[in-house]
Design a protein that fits this description.
The protein is mostly helical and about 775 residues long. It has 32 helices and nine strands. A five-stranded parallel beta sheet has the order 4-5-6-3-7, sandwiched between helices.
Length: about 775
């Protein structure tokens, strides 16, 4: 230092040196703090230094990297200095505490000797760790073990020959004080070598600080209680960074009010609370608190919905919760999120009535969810979400009424016809028309003393799947229909997968259709011998459900040939035949669009004695009911001739009937929306309107018609149709023509053939004309 202008001044180099020393000490203190309070943060810090370094590593094992990674070398030095200074400071603190409590003098000599040995051991460990540890352990084994044997030998000899051993004992009595002085030093050296830097800071320091943390937990509890009591309501989010886990990452015992504090903070700042939950989940021991907070936040957020738009936004509000959500949320939250998506879709509906239609599904799901709250699995969280479900039901039903009234004011024609997937009785209300003869025939045959295998067949889109879905509502309680979608079964590529698919779909169908909980199937046995276990499972079902018959409905059964090809086995088909033959209470129904002569030869073994039921066109009265009254309170929109014209074009084929009606309703609604007067009388559709929408109907159902032409019809059948258009008649009654009649494409009038359905004829004619261009 030197004087300059009358002031005492240090040189810049000395100032920099002091600054570096202070920074080094600060870093040591920080590592010491992290090692006990924030090990997750320390681990991240070590990974940034070297990806191979962890909390329990001896940094001197990576000595080869010191030259290229100076931070690694610095950390190793810091570990040594921390492990030297910390025990000394702790010893001094314990000495003062011990003396003040016990009133006795603390033995500084033993502690000092041990610490001397400890420091020597640390020095040796960092210099020669790799070899020294091994030799130290060996030395302990080969010196202490013989020493114990030697001690035991002396005690024994002292009892047997006391006079002879007396001089020897006097020698050891004089050596004991020297041993007492050397023992702490030796023990310190040994532990310094073996434990010193062997486990880095994490174990070296934590060992001295102690394993129990209740003395930290008590002030942390007071800290948390202070935050809960002193922070004003509505300001919790501003104090998230002051929660105890931000300063102590290894709090093992629970903190009161922490979950409640997080739930309140989420309502004020969702993003800050999510960041806190992420921190608690990844960098602390508070995973249980995170799960409890998720449950509370989900319950609180869904309960706060006051408008339909709030329900629609829940799926975004809670999008940060993992999917699938924690098991503590059961099936409640996923169901609420699905309902939120459905409500959002309804809000975006193209018209008020379309919005009403889209609300049917969330209303159904809310009813199901309300019932599921009574299940034992949801007993713990039912009180949290019970009021939410009721509130949502009220909001959704209110929106349905409001949109329905708006649709009536606007004179909108409900788009009540369905041309997509099969009708679902839970959502399509009374849209399914007719087929009572099919239901009565199925029930009669299935309940007969010797029920045969049943084959329900018909063309594409004739309503077979819809009929099977409505079957539980159209037959008596003595018969339990169990629907199996063979298209889903065909996705399996192994026999255990096929059997598991059968079991899963049967279980679901029993629960949905008859509210039956079937016994669980043995998964382990299913892997070993799948269809033998499936047969045993069927017997357990018969024992569980007494005095009932089961109708196993295999929809799109033709897809089972894909299973045969994939597994190179007919075991599934053999199982179905065995079920029919050996289980009197089980009836098997095959449903598809193929007749027996259109399938592979091996199907004859399974269906040769089957009784066939054909699904064909609707009766005229049923088709008229479908056209004029697809749902209750449907307005009168048809002139009588318009209905007759629809019947002419479709010949009561259910899909085509709904197709023409759908296109017509769309046109009438567009026509009405283009007029300014909303309250003008509704114009009824005429026969000319029906003819005008035929082209649009063909365009809308292009996929159906193309599939009919390219896949359902063979090349020979397509050639026959081409000949029919070229000559206006086909007079040869060949096998091909008979097949087209069976497929309900052609019909015979005298010696000539013509199309059964004019709409199909229109498509085929245009297709043939396009081919000739």
């Amino acid at each position: 230092m030197r004087f300059k202008n009358g002031y005492l001044s240090f040189s810049s180099s000395k100032i920099i040196g002091v600054s570096l020393i202070l920074d080094y000490l600060k870093r040591c203190c920080q590592i010491l703090y992290w090692s006990f309070f924030k090990p997750y943060t320390l681990n991240q810090y070590l990974k940034a230094i070297d990806s191979d370094l962890s909390l329990v590593d001896n940094p001197f094992e990576h000595r080869a990297k010191f030259s290229s990674k100076p931070k690694l070398k610095t950390y190793a030095q810091q570990v040594v200095h921390i492990n030297i200074i910390t025990p000394i400071l702790i010893t001094l603190g314990v000495a003062v505490l011990y003396s003040s409590i016990s009133g006795e003098a603390f033995s500084f000599l033993d502690s000092a000797l041990f610490l001397v040995g400890w420091v020597m051991g640390l020095y040796l460990a960092q210099k020669y760790y790799n070899n020294l540890t091994r030799w130290t352990v060996i030395l302990m084994i080969f010196t202490w073990l013989p020493g114990l044997v030697f001690l035991g030998f002396n005690l024994l000899m002292g009892r047997l020959f006391p006079e002879l051993m007396q001089p020897w004992f006097e020698f050891w009595a004089g050596a004991i004080p020297i041993i007492q002085l050397l023992l702490p030093v030796v023990l310190g050296v040994v532990l310094g070598v073996v434990l010193g830097v062997a486990f880095g800071v994490a174990f070296g320091v934590a060992y001295f600080l102690g394993l129990f943390r209740i003395y930290f937990w008590l002030p942390e509890v007071l800290w948390m209680m202070g935050l809960q009591g002193l922070v004003r309501k509505g300001e919790e989010a501003q104090w998230l960074r002051y929660l105890p886990p931000y300063f102590d990452q290894v709090i093992f015992l629970p903190l009161p009010f922490l979950t409640e504090f997080l739930i309140e903070a989420y309502g004020q700042s969702p993003q800050a609370t999510q960041d806190t939950l992420d921190y608690l989940s990844s960098s602390t021991n508070q995973q249980r608190v995170v799960l409890e907070a998720m449950v509370g936040i989900a319950a609180d957020s869904t309960r706060r919905c006051d408008r339909l738009s709030d329900i629609a936004n829940i799926v975004d509000t809670l999008a940060w919760i993992p999917s699938p959500p924690p098991r503590q949320l059961g099936s409640i939250l996923p169901s609420l999120l699905d309902i939120s998506r459905d409500v959002r879709a309804a809000q975006q509906g193209s018209s008020p009535y379309r919005k009403v239609e889209l609300l049917r599904e969330p209303i159904e799901k809310l009813q199901t969810l309300q019932q599921s709250l009574n299940l034992p699995d949801n007993a713990k969280i039912a009180p949290l979400f019970g009021a939410t479900v009721q509130r949502w039901q009220g909001l959704v039903n209110q929106a349905k009424r409001s949109w329905g009234e708006e649709a009536n004011r606007r004179g909108e024609i409900p788009p009540a016809y369905i041309t997509g997937s099969a009708l679902d009785p839970r959502t399509s209300e009374g849209r399914f028309k007719g087929r009572q003869d099919i239901f009565e025939a199925l029930e009669t045959v299935a309940l007969a003393d010797q029920a045969p295998i049943l084959l329900l067949y018909g063309g594409r889109r004739t309503g077979k799947t819809s009929a099977l879905k409505y079957l539980p509502r159209r037959v008596g309680s003595d018969l339990i229909p169990l629907l199996v979608d063979c298209q889903g079964i065909a996705e399996a590529t192994s026999l255990p997968g096929v059997a598991e698919g059968f079991a899963a779909q049967i279980t679901k169908s029993a629960r949905v259709n008859r509210n039956l909980q079937l016994p669980a199937i043995n998964r382990e046995e299913l892997e070993v011998d799948p269809f033998r276990e499936l047969r045993r499972w069927f017997k357990r079902i018969e024992t569980t459900v007494q005095q009932k018959r089961f109708l196993l409905c295999l929809d799109e059964f033709e897809r089972l040939r894909e299973v045969v090809a994939a597994t190179n086995s007919r075991v599934p088909l053999n199982f179905l035949r065995s079920t029919f033959q050996n289980h009197e209470r089980w009836v098997v129904l095959f449903s598809g669009s193929h007749t027996l002569d259109e399938l592979e030869d091996y199907w004859s073994d399974y269906l040769i004695n089957s009784q066939s039921l054909r699904m064909t066109y609707l009766r005229e009265t049923e088709a008229r009911e479908l056209i004029c009254h697809p749902v209750s309170e449907f307005p009168e929109i048809y002139e009588p001739e318009a209905v007759n014209r629809i019947l002419h074009w479709t010949r009561c084929q259910p899909y085509l009937t709904q197709l023409v009606c759908t296109v017509l309703v769309d046109r009438l609604n567009q026509e009405r929306s283009g007029r300014s007067e909303d309250n003008s009388p509704l114009r009824k559709a005429t026969a000319a309107d029906i003819d005008a929408v035929v082209a649009d109907a063909l365009e809308m159902a292009k996929g159906y018609f193309n599939e009919l032409w390219t896949r359902s019809l063979s090349e020979a059948e397509r050639d026959c149709i081409r000949e029919l258009f070229s000559t206006d008649a086909v007079t040869v009654n060949s096998k091909v023509q008979r097949k087209l009649i069976e497929r309900e494409i052609l019909t015979r009038e005298g010696d000539n053939f013509c199309f059964q359905v004019p709409l199909i004829e229109r498509f085929c004619r245009e297709r043939v004309q396009d081919e000739s261009i």
